[in-house]
Amino acid sequence: MTFPVSCPNTYVIYDGKQKTNASLYDRTIKLVQPRSFNELFQYISDSGKELSEGYPLRAGMFNRFPTSITKCDKIHYYVPYDKDIADGFCGSDGLIMQDTLKYFKFNTIFSRDKNCDRYGYMNRVKGTVTGSLGCIINGEINISFNSRFMGHINFRFTTLTRYPKIKTLQELYASNNVLYTSASVRDLLRPLENPNNTMQAAFLKKTKLHLPTDIGVILKIKDSVTLGRKTDVITEISLKYLSDNGTPLVYQVDQCFDSYYLSYISRFGFPFTKQLRIFMQRLLEAGLPNAYYRWTTQALGRPQKWTDQKVEPRTFSKITMQDQRIPFCLLLFGYIVATITFAFEKFR
Fold this sequence. Notes:
Helices cover 33% and strands 19% of the residues. The chain is built from 11 helices and 14 strands. It has a 5-stranded mixed β-sheet. The protein has a 4-stranded mixed β-sheet with strand order 5-4-8-14, with helices on both faces. A hairpin with a 3-residue loop joins strand 1 and strand 2. It is elongated.
C-alpha cells in the first residue's frame, strides 16, 4: 500500500504473524521508506518470509495440452494427486501448482474470469494487454501457473507428410507454406528475425493468426505449418497423428527455430516471489518437472517408441499425357504382338 500524496515514498508492507481463530489473513503491518527501487523490492521479498499460510492467493490456470489438462484419472498411478488442491488440473504445470500450494499453504482462490483463460499478449498499437498476462498486470490474479516462454524450450515447425519433407529452416523459408500461430507467439518471433536473412523475413511476414494453435490446423489449411514446443509437438503427434503401422503422419522440421526457458509470472509487489523462485529451483534440481511431464504423457497413453519412416512417401502430382508415353507405347506394342500371334495361329 502507498500514500503518494500525503506520504510520498512511504509504503505499508506485512511485518509478522498475528494469531487468530478467525478465517482472516491476520498479519501485522509496518511502514517503510526505501531509498531505492531495489531496497523496496528487498523489503517486499523479506515481508513474505514464513507468512504464506492463509495468504489469499488469486491464481490463474487454464487448459493447455499436455501441460495443464483435466483428464487426470490415470495420473494417480504415477504420482499422488489431489484434484481439490489443483482445481482439477494435472499435467506438469498442474502438478507443480499442486506442490506449490501444498508447500506454501496459501488460501487459494482460482480465477473464473474468461479473459484470463489464455496466455495473452501486448497489443503495441492499442497499448492493451490481453489474457492472463493482462490479468496479472491489472492485479486480478497474483500468479499464473501456466508455464510460458522465457528462453530454453525448443520451437519446432510441423507440416503434413503428403508434402515433400522439409529438413532445414531455409528449405521451409523457401517453400510456399504459411505459418499459422497465435498472436502471443507471433509477437515473440518478431525480435528474433535475422535482418540478414531476407527469406526468413518474408516467411515470417506471411504469418497468419489461428486459434486454437494445435497441430490440427495443418489438416484444415493447405500449404500450412505451425509452431510449438518440441516436447509437446512430439507428444501430440504420438497420441493423435500416427498411421496404423505407427509411422508419423506429420513431419517435424529437423532444425528448431529457437530455444526458450519456461517460467511462471506473478504480479509486481507479490510478497512471495523470492520464495517461489527458490522453491521452483529446488523442484527443477530434483528433476520433478521432467518427471511430471513424462508421467502425464504415459498416463495419456503416449507410446514409448514409434516407427521411423525409412522411405519417404511419394508426393501427389498431376498426371499428364507426356508422362504416360512409355506405358501407352508398351501397351500398344503388346496389342500388336498379341494381334499378330492371334492371326498367325488362326490362319496357319
